[in-house]
Structure formats: structure tokens, C-alpha cells
Specification:
The protein is mainly alpha-helical. Helices cover about 75% and strands about 0% of the residues. The protein has a single domain, classed as MetI-like (MetI-like fold), CATH 1.10.3720. It has eleven helices and no strands. It is a multi-pass membrane protein. It is found in: Cell membrane.
Length: about 220
């Protein structure tokens, strides 16, 4: 297996995009799961539908909608021009695309963990005079730690393999936005590029397997605690 400098760049960019998308989505994902589990806000069903929508939409559709939103003539175009920000065909666009596509997996995992918390713990905290933020930090966060880790793992792995939304919003620019899936796609469309595509496929499989091993080891550590 041989990798070119361009392939190594694609691997590094994939890791950067997956890490940034996961970390940036974590606070919003936790907040969304908390709202869906512990509150009865108006429009809760609509919020749940919006959160889960990227899970059922084709990634290309998600990418096109993001393009309409962040494009120069899109809904946020004037705001982006005012702050001199460019999203299309940049690494930021790749991060946003991966974050949107992987967000439902993060929320669903955290939500499952929160739904498994015994209501008696929260009632006991309220009986002792704990405010909602006290219950959050002393009860909900510790008991949903494994679910948060599982959600982060799923989202990170999903971001490593994101293709459709990324190529629409960020393009396939070597050294700038070309991640592992995009590099594989380019090799499959290049005569004689099958061996290089296979090399990157093996790298992708190895990275995903490593993520799963780390997740399982962390989960065992949580159980021992």
C-alpha cells in the first residue's frame, strides 16, 4: 500500500473535519437531546422532525440545501459578505456539511442515554432543592456520559465517510477540501487509479475500526467507574 502526499493530505483533512464537526456539534446536540427528553416545549414534534431530517434525506439534497443557504445569493449570503466569510469551497464548508449530516446520530444516542436515567434520581435532586442546572451537572451529565461518548463516536465515524453533502457544498479541491471519500471518488474516475483507491479504502477501514476500538475501551472504562 502506497500513499501519495495528496493522499496524506486527504487523510489529515478528514481527521480535521471529523474532529471539528463532532466537537462543534456536541453542545448543540446535548441541548437538543435535553429539550426532547426533559422539556415539553411547544413545537417539540417539529424540533424532533428537523433534527432527524438529515438522517432520512439523501446527503446530496442536504448539500444542495446548504448551498442555497450559504451561497453568495443564498439566505445567509448578505450576512456572510458583511462579515467577509466564505463557506462555499472551503474547509469550513466541509465541516458544516459533516456536522449537519452526522448531527441526528449524535442527538439520538444522547437522547437514548437520557431516556434511560431513572426519574427517581431527578425527583430526589429536586426534593433536595437542586435547580435544573444542578440536576444537569450532578445527575444528567454523569449518567449520560456513555451515551454522549457513543454519539460522538458515531458522528466522528459518519463524518469520516461523508461524501454527498461535502462535494456539493465544499467541492473536491485537493489540499483544501478533498477528504478520503472524495479522493477515492477521484481515483475511481481516473484510469489506473484503482490501486490508489483501494489503498485509501483500507486506510478508511482502519481509521473507522480504530474509532470503534477507542469507543469500546472508553465505554468499558465508564462501566468500571
Amino acid at each position: 500500500m502506497s500513499l501519495t502526499p495528496q493522499d496524506i493530505q486527504a487523510i489529515i483533512l478528514s481527521l480535521k473535519v471529523a474532529t471539528a464537526a463532532t466537537l462543534l456539534s456536541l453542545p448543540l446536540g446535548f441541548a437538543a437531546a435535553y429539550l426532547l427528553v426533559f422539556t415539553r416545549i411547544p413545537g417539540r414534534a417539529a424540533l424532533e422532525g428537523v433534527v432527524n431530517l438529515p438522517l432520512v434525506l439523501p446527503p446530496v439534497v442536504v448539500g444542495y440545501l446548504l448551498l442555497l443557504l450559504f451561497g453568495q445569493s443564498g439566505s445567509l449570503g448578505p450576512v456572510l459578505r458583511f462579515f467577509d466569510l466564505r463557506i462555499i469551497f472551503t474547509l469550513k464548508g466541509a465541516v458544516i456539511a459533516s456536522a449537519v449530516v452526522g448531527f441526528p446520530l449524535l442527538v439520538r444516542s444522547i437522547r437514548i442515554g437520557m431516556e434511560g436515567i431513572d426519574e427517581q434520581y431527578l425527583q430526589a435532586a429536586r426534593t433536595l432543592g437542586a435547580r435544573w442546572w444542578d440536576s444537569l451537572y450532578s445527575v444528567i451529565l454523569p449518567l449520560s456520559g456513555r451515551a454522549v461518548l457513543a454519539g460522538m463516536t458515531l458522528m466522528f465515524a459518519r463524518s469520516l465517510g461523508e461524501f454527498g453533502a461535502t462535494i456539493i457544498l465544499a467541492g473536491n479541491i485537493p489540499g483544501v477540501t478533498q477528504t478520503i471519500p472524495l479522493a477515492i471518488y477521484e481515483y475511481t474516475n481516473t484510469p489506473g487509479g484503482d490501486s490508489m483507491a483501494l489503498s485509501l479504502c483500507l486506510v478508511s477501514i482502519g481509521l473507522s475500526f480504530l474509532v470503534l476500538l477507542v469507543s469500546e475501551a472508553s465505554a468499558r472504562s465508564f462501566r468500571r467507574r
